[in-house]
Amino acid sequence: MEIQLKRTGNMKFEAVGANDNTATVDGPVKSGGTEEGLRPMETMLVALASCSAMDIVHILNKQRQELDDLQITAKGVRADAIPAVFTDIALHYEASGNVDPEKLKRAAQLSVENYCSVAAMLKDSVKVTYTTSVKTG
Questions:
Q1: H-helix or E-strand containing 106?
Q2: Overall pTM > 0.85
Q3: Strand-pair partners of 80
Q4: How far apart are CA 113 and CA 36, in angstroms?
Q5: Is the pLDDT of residue 73 over 90?
Q6: Three-state DSSP class for 119?
Q7: 60 with 73: CB under 8 angstroms?
Q8: Confidence band of 137 (pLDDT split at 50, 70, 90)
Q9: What is the pLDDT of residues 75-93, one digit of tens each?
């Protein structure tokens, strides 16, 4: 696996991955950025949430759950030090559709504890917790 990162502004970069898919990363104005992209630590939250989301969809599909939508909120707490690494990340999974709440909870557990590669990489240094809810109506 490989990506290319190209500077496109003072603190702005374009990441190019497989199949020429792109993502923009930028810094805050106070650091010379333009805030036109995700910050690097936000991309860590995106990586964790998206990795887990794919697991959740796969697991629920195998369980024949009728998942209409899935939204994940990832909140990271950073150390008050340099480097300001994440110490805790809380994930909240909100599913909509005809989904059994217990099956969603179990899918989240399996993802965070067993399947998600990003969660596995973080497990020795970051406390990752999760909650789940099913939106009705």
A1: helix 101-110
A2: yes
A3: none
A4: 34
A5: yes
A6: helix
A7: no
A8: low
A9: 999 999 999 999 999 999 9
